[in-house]
Design goal:
about 80 residues
């Protein structure tokens, strides 16, 4: 659990609420890695766009290979994401 100030999901407004609502629609919840960036919605939006480009954009790596790389890196870093 992070010790970073976050805007509670139920108190989100504007762009942040739109991002949170999309997260809930896709995953059933707002993951901590998204929630931790709640104080700066434009930066959070940019981070999500970068993630989508890296994971779903054109690449010589398959989607499965990208996921495996992410899993290995997270494991090495002792990160459950």
């Amino acid at each position: 659990m992070a010790w970073i100030k976050k805007i509670p999901v139920g108190e989100a407004e504007g762009r942040l609420k739109t991002i949170f609502d999309g997260s809930v629609k896709r995953a059933g919840k707002v993951y901590q890695i998204v929630h931790l960036q709640s104080l700066n919605a434009p930066v959070l939006q940019a981070a999500l766009e970068m993630y989508r480009a890296a994971m779903f954009g054109p690449s010589p790596l398959s989607r499965q290979q990208r996921e495996m790389i992410g899993t290995v890196v997270s494991s090495i870093n002792h990160c459950h994401y």
